[in-house]
Write a structure and sequence with these properties.
By secondary structure, the protein is of the alpha+beta class. Helix content is about 20%, strand content about 30%. A hairpin with a 5-residue loop joins strand 9 and strand 10. The chain is elongated. The model has no long low-confidence stretch (mean pLDDT about 80).
Length: about 250
């Protein structure tokens, strides 16, 4: 409220018939800040009203029709500058609210301890992580009783973060393969770190096709499930998938 309405104010009484001047000074600055914050994040600011319930209803009504759009910057220039995003709709008479842009701030480099903790947490979690989308195909190597699986992992390069250096795109991945028994007991793990150093032409081609990673994994005796964990070293995004092995190698699982 305005300062003159404070109960601690011993000044002259306010004439209710006399118009009160608009909010000014620090109050007006607060409103400008609220408007800027709301506009840049796709929201709307409510102030100078006692209708809190009405404001809440309007916010809930706006949230009944929303669309989620995924945007993956591929400029490779994480210089901290503000990058504007514009969204247009063809239907006239509509007002859209959305985030107006982002600051291209690079993620802080993760050390070995943070990377290990992230992989360990994904390994023991009963729920698969989907912040990084992965597809995996598992086939037994020939001969069928070799006890070796061929694992092919497909990744969408748009979901990976790269740095640009001398015209090349660099990134890295951590792969973890966890084998468990029928009682979910941990019986083996295999970890691999992959450094990506791609020429511009190769990078642009993989943006269209995706990237395939192949791994030949010896099975541990008694393994009935395989959990694959992939972590993007630049962004820290994780993707996991759990694959039952009983139908692939019934003789091995018995």
């Amino acid at each position: 409220t305005l300062p003159q309405f404070s109960a601690a104010n011993r000044g002259p009484a306010i004439n209710p018939r006399r118009p009160v001047r608009p909010f000014a000074g620090i109050d007006q600055n607060n409103f400008a800040t609220m408007n800027t914050l709301a506009e840049r994040t796709g929201g709307q600011a409510f102030y100078n009203t006692n209708d809190i319930a009405g404001s809440a209803r309007r916010a809930l009504s706006d949230g009944q029709l929303t669309y989620s759009l995924g945007y993956y910057p591929d400029h490779g220039k994480w210089d901290g500058k503000f990058h504007e995003i514009k969204i247009h709709v063809n239907r006239p008479g509509l007002q859209i609210r959305y985030r107006k842009g982002y600051f291209a701030t690079p993620d802080p480099p993760s050390d070995a301890g943070e990377r290990k903790a992230s992989l360990d947490a994904a390994a023991v979690s009963p729920i698969d992580s989907m912040s990084l989308g992965i597809q995996a195909q598992v086939n037994p190597m020939q001969p069928a009783d070799s006890g070796i699986l061929e694992i092919v992992i497909w990744l969408d390069l748009h979901e990976l973060q790269f740095s640009e250096n001398a015209g090349r795109r660099t990134g890295d991945l951590d792969l973890l393969f966890i084998q468990r028994s029928q009682t979910s007991q941990f019986i083996g793990a295999d970890q691999k770190h992959i450094d990506l150093n791609l020429e511009k032409e190769k990078y642009e081609a993989l943006l269209q096709s995706g990237i395939n990673l192949t791994r030949h994994l010896p099975l541990k005796p008694g393994a009935t499930s395989l959990k694959i964990v992939v972590r993007d070293g630049k962004s820290g995004a994780l993707g996991t998938v759990t694959i039952p092995l009983g139908k692939l190698l019934p003789s091995h699982s018995s």
